[in-house]
Design a protein that fits this description.
about 220 residues, alpha+beta, five-stranded antiparallel β-sheet, two-stranded antiparallel ribbon
Length: about 220
C-alpha cells in the first residue's frame, strides 16, 4: 500500500493505493464475495467453488485465480510486482495500476525464508544495504467489453492497453524495523476510498471494500 499525505482535495487528506501481488481479484461481484465469506465461516471454502453437483455452477475460473495466488512464493516484498486488481477512475475514463521493481533483471540476495518473520527481515536487510525502487504505472481502459469494470476477475490485456510509467517510487536506505515505526504502521488506516474524486474506486467489489475496510479499521483501533 502507498499513502500520499497532504492531499487537499481528498476528504481524508490522503490518497491510498492498495495493491496485491496478482493482476486480478478472485471473485467477480458482491454476491460472490458474501458467499465466499460465508463458506469461510463454515470452514468449508470448497463449497464456494463447488456449491452443488451441477457443473454449470462450478466456479473454476475463481478456483484457478486462487491457486495462482497461493502458488506465488514471495521471499522479499521489495522484489515483487503489485497490481490494483480492481479498476479506478482516471478523470473521464478508467484505469488499473501496478508497481514494478525498477530493475527486473536483478534480484535481491536477501531471500532467506527460515525465519517466521522473513518478509520483514529481508526487507530490512535489503534497506540496510541500499535503496529500493518501483515504477508506478497506469493502464487506461481502451475497450469497454474486453476490459470490464464490474468483473475484476478479467485481466485487461496489455496488448490492447499497455501500462504507462507515470512515477518512480524510491524507498531510501533506512531502519524501519523499530518499535516506534511498528506502532506508527499499526496506527495507519489504508483503504481505496482515501482518494480524490478523479481516482475514485469503480465497480461493485470496490464498493464492498469501502464497508469492509472501514469496519476492519474501526474494530482494530477499538481493540
Amino acid at each position: 500500500a502507498i499513502k500520499l499525505m497532504g492531499v487537499e482535495r481528498s476528504q481524508s487528506g490522503t490518497q491510498d493505493f492498495v495493491m496485491v501481488n496478482h493482476p486480478v481479484f478472485f471473485v467477480k461481484n458482491a454476491a460472490d464475495y458474501v458467499e465466499f465469506q460465508q463458506a469461510l465461516v463454515q470452514d468449508s471454502p470448497i463449497k464456494f467453488f463447488f456449491p452443488d453437483l451441477n457443473p454449470l455452477n462450478f466456479r473454476l475460473h475463481a478456483l484457478a485465480i486462487i491457486a495462482a495466488i497461493r502458488n506465488k512464493k514471495i521471499s522479499n516484498p521489495l522484489e515483487t510486482q503489485y497490481w490494483s486488481a480492481t479498476p479506478y477512475r482516471f478523470g473521464d475514463t478508467a484505469m488499473k495500476f501496478t508497481t514494478r521493481p525498477c530493475n527486473k533483471s536483478t534480484h535481491s540476495t536477501f531471500t532467506d525464508t527460515t525465519s517466521p518473520n522473513f518478509l520483514r527481515e529481508n526487507m530490512q536487510k535489503h534497506l540496510d544495504h541500499g535503496a529500493a525502487c518501483f515504477d508506478f504505472m497506469v493502464q487506461l481502459r481502451t475497450r469497454a467489453i474486453e476490459m470490464p469494470i464490474e468483473d475484476p476477475t478479467i485481466e485487461w490485456n496489455e496488448k490492447d492497453a499497455p501500462f504507462i510509467t507515470v512515477a518512480k517510487i524510491t524507498i531510501p536506505s533506512q531502519q524501519f524495523n523499530t518499535s516506534e515505526q511498528q506502532k506508527f504502521c499499526e496506527d495507519l488506516t489504508f483503504t481505496p476510498w482515501h482518494t480524490v474524486l478523479e481516482h475514485q474506486p469503480l465497480g461493485g467489489i470496490n464498493r464492498v471494500r469501502q464497508v469492509v475496510y472501514e469496519t476492519s479499521s474501526r474494530v482494530r483501533h477499538e481493540l
